[in-house]
Specification:
Layout: E1 2-9, E2 18-20, E3 22-26, E4 29-30, E5 36-40, E6 62-66, E7 69-73, E8 79-81, H1 86-94, E9 98-102, E10 113-117, H2 118-128, E11 141-144, E12 158-161, E13 164-173, H3 190-199, E14 202-211, E15 213-216, E16 220-221
Parallel strand pairs: 10-11
Antiparallel strand pairs: 1-2, 1-11, 1-16, 3-4, 3-15, 5-9, 6-7, 7-8, 10-14, 12-13, 13-14
């Protein structure tokens, strides 16, 4: 039986997130997930979101949700309110004009819930002949108890996770973000090349929310 092994929320897009014991999943995804994002005002990127691809140091900032507001711990240990000058600090660091956007459901690359099968990550690590931290894939729900890549067969059907019902809509085609170590940001470019060769550059599946509900670690999925 497949179970929810870990739940992760990323209040600020492209920053490190927080592990949760449980969370409510609404139509816009996990409550508070990617609610905030930094919008780039550089002329050739005006209106696009700032991600790890443009500024890898975003990974060294860790965001968490407290009483409906986001707090961000910087690499120096300083704590910042997300709307308290953080955009200005990161604009100076990245040398890009940035604005903070607070808009639930609008800051995803694709669909609002990303599910990754830990058995698939382990199989991919064996192919790569190295340890692959599952956090590289920045999922909301990490599942255990499945065969490797079993989740691919879920595309087009619904699955239940806790009290929530999810519609599996597509595989997640990955980018260079997975080549960055989630703790050090050190690059391992061959991981993306191997994923392209073996798995069509995909890891995990995107889901929309067919029915809102609570999900907790240890809940069955299927």
């Amino acid at each position: 039986m497949a179970l929810v092994a870990e739940i992760w929320r990323y209040p600020v897009k492209s920053m490190a997130g927080e592990r949760l014991e449980s969370c409510v999943i609404e139509a816009t995804g996990l409550v508070g997930d990617r609610r905030w994002a930094l919008v780039d005002a550089t002329p050739n990127r005006a209106g696009k979101l700032l991600t790890i691809r443009q500024h890898e140091k975003l990974l060294t900032y860790r965001a968490r949700l407290e009483d409906g507001a986001a707090k961000v711990v910087g690499p120096d240990g300083a704590v910042h309110a997300v709307d308290g000058g953080l955009a200005r600090l990161l604009a100076e660091e990245s040398m890009r004009p940035l604005q903070l956007r607070d808009l639930a459901g609008a800051n995803f690359d694709d669909s609002p819930v990303l599910v990754v099968n830990l058995a698939s990550v382990r199989a991919f690590a064996a192919e790569a002949a190295m340890h692959v931290d599952h956090r590289r894939f920045r999922a909301n729900l990490y599942l255990d108890g499945l065969d490797a890549f079993e989740e691919v067969s879920w595309v087009g059907r619904q699955i239940r996770a806790g009290d929530a019902q999810l519609q599996v809509v597509a595989r997640d085609e990955r980018c260079v973000v997975i080549t960055r170590d989630p703790d050090t940001t050190a690059a391992t470019p061959q991981l993306l090349s191997l994923l392209a060769q073996r798995h069509d550059t995909c890891m995990g599946v995107y889901c929309t929310v067919a029915r809102s509900g609570q999900v907790a670690e240890g809940d069955p999925v299927g």
